[in-house]
Amino acid sequence: MTRIEKIALPAVIFLLFAACCMHIMVAYVGDKTWLLLAAEMLFQGYRLDVDVIEVNPPLIIWLYAVAVWISLHLSFLRDYNVMGLMGLAGAALSVWLSMGLIRLHPAFSGDRRKQNVFALLLASLFIFFTSATYFFDREHILLVFAFPYMLRFMPSLAQQALPLRTRIVIGLCAAFGFCIKPYTVIVFAGLQLLVCLRERRLAILWSVENGIIYLMGTVYLFCVWHFTPDYIRFIFPMALETYSAFSRRDIGIFYCILAFITAGLAFADFRPRHATPYRKDILYFIGVSLVFFVYALANNGWGYTYHPLLCMLLFLNTWVLWEHIWLKHTHAQRGLPVRQFVFGARACAINLLANAVYIVFCLGSFFMTPTCEWLSECRKNQPYVQYLAEHHIRSFGALTEDFHKWSSLARLSGASLDTRYNALWMVPGLVMKGKQFVADHHWIVEYAGLGLADDLNRRRPEIVFVDDSKRFFGSSLDVSLPGFFLQVPQFGEAWSHYRYTATIDRCVPATPKEQAVTVGCKYDIYSRVP
Predict the structure, then answer these.
(1) Which of 73, 96, 126, 267 is the most buried (most CB within 10 A)?
(2) Which residue from 137, 49, 124 is spatially nearest to 87, judged by alpha carbons?
(3) Which residues partner with 472 through β-bridges?
(4) Tens of pLDDT, residues 31-68
């Protein structure tokens, strides 16, 4: 080992260990707060997509339900700890499968040191370069479990003969990743197109791996139809009509800039070269990166949709770095100039280091921040927790557009969240498109209103927080949420049992350092009366 390797290896292992600790301790952040709570509700007797409404297909809830089930049988682990461990196990499986493949690559075959570096690279991408907010969420699951499949069809490995059991496991993992969200069909179709254009034949469509994906995809669709038919009948059509209001493609420009910078550094000195063991694979991974870029653009614009793209660009950056090193050594042996390869290699190394420094900064902020802030945003939720404690509230509901607050509040306060919606995500889409659109899609109002009425009548939350901030991610949303659903008679009758009692207003930052809230900052509190 060189002196640099003796310093870098312990540092990488230490950072991976720190990242693993972070993911186990604070897996309960971001969208996962509600998804994990929804999974918990299944063990309380509630039915998915009937009593618990989730806009995502049910696979992610079923997966998180495994973490809940394990935590119920192992009392020393919290459900989010188990979820973090499951994410690490998935990453380890993907790295193990990828290692079995890369050993067959001409540039890696017989070079144990290089294979180990490859394993550390993948572990870093799946664990270190993945923030706690995205770890073991949908896009991370897609990247981790579909990665061996993408690696399997890279030019240097596509024609390699693999054991049948290996191909089956790769297909099963890929099927799991591609089934996690409907949009993932873009990635699957893009990969088929890349391979078909390269090989000028359709052999990949009939491969063993694809056969497994077709089979498992069909089984999954049957399970959705059989176990959660309301998702197909109501929730998915409702999301198609209204969920576009939650699109934040404007902020996606920020992630595009990061992607362009990362790609720019990786290809700072990339030009036509002599044939190398890496060139065809680099061109393939450029195509894969473009597929993930299209996937991100087709999605809602939130940061997690760009995560696979950024990870793939870092992986591609390392592949280009290896090519520069190979060219440098080859040209040096022939007595040819190597300066341009040194420059390219340094640009790639700087790219990796810059991303690593940013992640180290994030890790440092995590270990310097109380765990409660990461898990439940204690300071922001303190007024709500205080109100629940002072009035001895054990159950509450919420009519809101805020996706994250209430599942965190339930965990923080110990009170139960007695509502089927984490947010009324259909309302902005209806209101923003005008009264005629609402009239034409009255079935959506009726479906959501009947569900809310059933929650109020059957679950009987002691209080209901009603979002009165009139804000929706920086835009004005001038609508009374209870008033909007009063057009459903059953909701009006159920709502008549609640009376206004107080208001919590957090629209104005309490301190100069506190950021202004863009959604869900003012809540009227309604208490149930006999």
Answers:
(1) 126
(2) 137
(3) 475, 519
(4) 898 999 999 999 999 999 999 999 999 999 999 999 99
Q: Are strands 395-399 and 463-467 parallel, antiparallel or unpaired?
A: parallel
Find the radius of gyration of the CA atoms of the chain. 25
Q: What is the sign, positive or negative, of the torsion defined by CA atoms of 361, 363, 367, 372?
A: positive
Separation CA 393–CA 173 (nearest Å): 44
Sequence-distant (6+) residues with CB within 8 A of 311 are 125, 126, 129, 130, 143
Query: Minimal CA–CA distance to 519: which of 424, 421, 401?
Result: 401
> How many of the other CB atoms lie within 10 Å of CB of 276?
16
Strand partners, 525: 465, 502
C-beta neighbour count of 381 within 10 angstroms: 21
Of the candidates 152, 172, 182, the one whose C-alpha atom is nearest the C-alpha of residue 214 is: 172
Distances (CA, A) of 44 to 47, 55, 255, 314, 509: 9, 20, 39, 43, 37
CA–CA separation, 287 and 301 (whole Å): 21
- Single-letter amino acid, residue 373: E
pLDDT per residue over 450-474, tens digit each?
999 999 999 999 999 998 877 665 5
Contacts of 281 (CB under 8 A, 6+ apart): 154, 155, 156, 319
Could you tell me which of 314, 313, 344 has the C-alpha nearest to residue 327? 344
What residue has token string 């999605």?
299
Long-range contacts of 100-103 (CB under 8 A, 24+ apart): 100/166, 101/148, 101/151, 101/152, 101/157, 101/160, 101/162, 102/151
Whether the per-residue pLDDT at 409 is higher than 60: the answer is yes
Strand partners, 528: 498
Please choose, from the candidates 426, 503, 434, the residue with its C-alpha nearest in 3D space to the C-alpha of residue 464: 503
Distance separating alpha carbons of residues 146 and 305, to the nearest angstrom: 15
What whole-number distance in Å separates Cα of residue 134 and Cα of residue 91? Answer: 13
- In the predicted model, is pLDDT for residue 362 greater than 90? no
Residue 522 pairs in a beta bridge with 505
Between the CA of residue 467 and those of 34, 173, 506, what are the distances in Å?
A: 18, 41, 11
Phi and psi at residue 504, in whole multiples of 5°?
-115, 115
